[in-house]
Specification:
Blueprint lengths: L6 H4 L11 H12 L10 E2 L5 E6 L5 H10 L2 H8 L8 H8 L7 E9 L2 E12 L5 E8 L8 H15 L4 E7 L3 H9 L3 E4 L5 E7 L8
Parallel strand pairs: 5-6
Antiparallel strand pairs: 1-2, 2-3, 3-4, 4-5, 6-8, 7-8
Length: about 210
């Protein structure tokens, strides 16, 4: 999948003003929400009825993301970031949470844990230079894997890309990550060799979105 570690050297954060007032922040959040499928606001429940709130990621989520990544196992962090990562730098967290939602997309999944917000999943894509395709990434907390959350998040991400007129979704997955490869195959993604023998390229033509119904 998209390795966010590469963002530290390359991507530019969206310009922002620390003086924005609460009303302006709410207006910006509402505008951002209109860039995603309306059904995101309904939330999602797993088979046990546990509720997950899903919304576009925001700069205010920086601490939630830091805690989330720190809570993941060494293996899960390695499979997601394709490197041995103990924690994300403040600069990288800022780039992951402060983005231009008109160009890229990022959804955060949150549950209530004894009255505190807990992140249990994040799905995102970055628009490629061709303007017609994107590179996606997804991560789900270990105790929420196998419960349908990953499928739901990726479905919403695909719906977002389709609504914005994109034609293809790509990703890079470690060859040893057989669980992820099986997951995307089940959703209609193709899998092919990569220039790096340690990884596989996964790809979905967005006209094939009925696989996500």
């Amino acid at each position: 999948m998209l390795s966010d570690l590469a963002l530290e050297a390359g991507a530019s954060p969206v310009a922002h003003s620390g003086s924005a007032d609460a009303l302006g922040a709410r207006s910006a959040a509402a505008e951002c929400g209109r860039l995603y499928p309306a059904r995101i606001a309904d939330g999602w429940r797993d088979a046990t009825g546990a509720l997950v709130r899903i919304r576009p990621i925001a700069a205010a989520d920086a601490e939630l993301i830091r805690v989330f990544v720190h809570s993941l196992s060494v293996e899960t962090r390695y499979l997601r970031f394709m490197a041995a990562v103990k924690q994300l730098s403040p600069q990288l967290i800022d780039r992951l949470t402060r983005l231009d939602h008109r160009r890229d997309a990022a959804l955060i999944a949150i549950t209530d844990d004894a009255g505190e917000d807990r992140v249990v999943g994040v799905a995102r894509y970055a628009l490629n230079a061709d303007g017609r395709s994107c590179e996606f990434a997804i991560i789900v907390a270990e105790d929420w894997q196998g419960r349908g959350l990953g499928r739901h998040l990726l479905t919403l991400l695909v719906e977002t890309a389709v609504a914005r007129g994109l034609e293809r979704m790509d990703g890079e997955v470690l060859a040893v990550n057989r669980t992820m490869l099986a997951f995307v195959r089940a959703l209609g993604f193709g899998v092919s060799a990569s220039a790096d023998p340690a990884t596989r390229r996964v790809h979905l033509g967005l006209d094939r979105r009925p696989a996500f119904a």
